[in-house]
């Protein structure tokens, strides 16, 4: 009898390039030998058009059941329109830690070799929550929410991650010289937690200086501990250091539920052309394979990915190659 475990995963293909990169990644995942069952849902504008809801209730039930989500990017309108479903998902399932490893891939020429840093971004608070109101005509107020609970929780996550993954140093990134209360509280919490981890070096950098230091000498950084909006912006900066947004993965983690997605957005400028690079989502899927305790598959995909990049022949356009999204996935499968 076939007793192989079936891994049931909630899938959000997303929009823009989302369906293209998720299809490519699913094709690779299904070639690993792990058996998957996918529960797929639309969200955002498409879901609203179909069901009158931006986040369908069936999706929430599926996530509560499976506890693991693979997600493509979802567009959020600029200015007006509906609230970000990405932010809503992170808050609804208390996915308080956003882990974003940024590391050079072999064979990708960049100005910055030997980058190996991790952004640990607080995922539920800060000004990123988008709580704003017009208090008088022409005057708008935005809330930057910072709590001791969430700041301590994310600092502890960063230090525990450093300890278990043999990382040596954490820099808390802030603007507490200006936002003395909000970023000041974030720093206070990080300092307190740091005292419980004497083997891990702890430093602090003001965000503007951190940006310059990242561009001059990113190799000095190990883990960057940030509040929500700073982490969002620094992620794209760091993606640029190693070759672009097509490459960088992320995991949104809580106590029970995890959502794996690329750092990039829905890239409407290249959607529907089979040219998007699925590497960011594929590296997120590798994080997912570790998370669901499929280490052999995780290592197989990782090795195949590195092989394809080292060979440098089967790359997508953003990596100066000529392969399409699906052809790149097929090259990974062939390398496995
Ligand atoms: P974006 O990340 O979608 O694109 C920025 C640039 O990077 C574009 O030139 C794009 O072509 C390129 N790019 C991104 N991903 C790529 C890939 N896989 N392969 C090759 N090139 C890639 O950022 P944007 O244009 O600012 O945002 C577009 C939409 O995505 C917005 O609605 C935004 O709200 C949304 N967004 C969603 C998420 C998410 O779902 N987690 C994250 C970021 C942005």
UniProtKB/TrEMBL annotation:
InterPro entries: IsoCit/isopropylmalate_DH_CS (IPR019818), IsoPropMal-DH-like_dom (IPR024084)
Domain of life from the UniProt record: Bacteria
Biological processes annotated in GO: isocitrate metabolic process; tricarboxylic acid cycle
GO molecular function, one term: magnesium ion binding
Keyword Endoplasmic reticulum: no
Keyword Oxidoreductase set for record: yes
SUPFAM superfamilies for the chain: Isocitrate/Isopropylmalate dehydrogenase-like (SSF53659)
Domain Isopropylmalate dehydrogenase-like: 8-332
Keywords for this protein: Oxidoreductase
Assigned protein family: Belongs to the isocitrate and isopropylmalate dehydrogenases family.
Protein name: Isocitrate/isopropylmalate dehydrogenase family protein
